[in-house]
Amino acid sequence: MKLKQYLQYLTEQKITKEDLKNLEVYADKLFRALGIDVEFTNHFSRRVNDPRNKKQITMEELTRLFRESYRKYGRRISELGPDAEAVINDMLTDINVPFVLQWDPKNKELDLVAKTVMRKKDFRTSNPILRID
User: Fold this and answer.
1) Of 65, 70, 116, 125, whose CB neighbour count within 10 A is largest?
2) How far apart are CA 96 and CA 129, in angstroms?
3) How far apart are alpha carbons 58 and 42 in whole angstroms?
4) 43 Cα distance to chain centroid
5) What is the pTM of this model?
6) φ/ψ of residue 57, rounded to 5
7) What is the pLDDT of residue 6?
8) Sequence ranges of the domains in the chain
């Protein structure tokens, strides 16, 4: 990363734990009708503000990503079932969110566990990619 990019990154607004908590509440409300609870790993929390993203990921971008993925793929995600893995890819912002679905026997629902997040063009994976425009 060039010095100019790094200095710009340092001055951009970072996403806080409170921001992620609010995003999780929002995503939970969206996916609740499908019996899905959204969770973020610690790695997701660390990676959201990582300088390797080159441009800071914003709350607006993440909110849009979850809203549009629910709108376009909500039913399909719920039908994948436990232990399924996939990646939500926002073509507009180049943000990628790999996730796994895990069955929560206590709450009798699927947990959509967002494993990480990164801004990367041409993200490659062997898992299914759910693209949003």
Assistant:
1) 65
2) 9
3) 18
4) 11
5) 0.89
6) -75, 135
7) 61
8) 17-132
